[in-house]
Amino acid sequence: MTIAVLYGGKTGEHEVSLLSATSVVRNIDTKKHKILLIGITKTGRWYLQSNNEIKRVKNDEKAILKIQTMSDMVVSVVPGGGTDGGLIVLGSEFGAKNLPVDVIFPVLHGTYGEDGCPQGLLEMAEIPYVGGGVMASAVSMDKEKTKQVWEQVGLPVVPFVCVRRYQKENDAEMEQIYKQVERDFTYPVFVKPCCAGSSVGASKAVDKAALEKAIAEAFLWDEKILIEPCIQAREIECSVTGNDELVAYTPGEIKPSHEFYDYEAKYTDPNGAALLIPADLDDSRLREVRQLAVKAYQALDLSGLSRVDFFIDKTNDRLYLNEVNTIPGFTSISMFSKMCEASGLHYSQLIEKLLELAITRFKKRKQLKTSR
Ligand SMILES: Nc1ncnc2c1ncn2[C@@H]1O[C@H](COP(=O)(O)OP(=O)(O)O)[C@@H](O)[C@H]1O
Ligand SMILES: [Mg+2]
Description:
372 residues, alpha+beta, Rossmann fold, D-amino Acid Aminotransferase, Chain A, domain 1, Dna Ligase, domain 1, 6-stranded antiparallel sheet, 4-stranded mixed sheet, 17 strands, 36% helix, globular, binds adenosine-5'-diphosphate, binds magnesium ion
């Protein structure tokens, strides 16, 4: 099969994607499959990369994928083009050339990656792609909408107050919100953007003055934000794969050495967090996490893969769903892949499985009627 790997992207998580995609490329069996590398720049342009780039990262375990921006390698998407003509390369001298592919693996994180935007583009092009569909991706990117869906089917979420920018700009509205927060929650509270990731714009507030500051910080990143009670949380994660028949793998635990699992703990501090698989929980709790992960995934109509993240409140042992990542960090040593590995699914098998799930989902949907 021919697999196009999309990587980079117009997102704060561009660099994380380079790492994830490097790992994916290294572990696709090139005797069995052909890889097309498509790098997306930070400004959102797509460029076909030379085959040497694949060889370079396969031969050097320290190498990380780069993105070359050659003007005769611009890639474009053609609505209705399908697997033969849905992707084209716009060479300046030779005009457009088709880039036939069987499946696309968007190894992209965050905005314009796992938020339904590239998924919509690939739906229009009629090419199978790995992961959740448009609606599932878009809802899962939005922490308010995700929690509303989960609450609606009776799944446990941390209570929240959502604030939109028009409210922030109205003093009377904000006084009501402060009142509500102070009535329903006790300090400290936690503030975060609704549709960001990597803990950007997230912080803890111990009093009203700190809350005002935290809200201002979160609004730098998004048009709406969440205020929640601050949970003294154990952070539990669970990988799930599948379309209809779902598998939830051995849950793991993150033990951040910082005040919470912040950006530095995630990416820049090598001692920022310990990863523990399986999570240090008894068997019935592990089972409960897996069952809840499946319900959370189903409630959002997810497909392909997702990492479902939980909190366990240390003060009373209550388990809450926190959020879901539809294209989680995906290197061979990321939590997602390590949790699959702990249940016996090796990284390269995991990639094969996701490609197959993508094609199966595409074929099923292709049978649907689109006209009378
Ligand atoms: N209500 C909360 N109470 C305490 N800590 C929280 C709360 N919400 C988030 N956090 C901390 O912030 C981190 C990032 O928040 P999260 O909701 O996972 O967003 P993202 O990972 O998408 O940035 C969490 O892993 C956790 O450490
Ligand atoms: Mg998170």
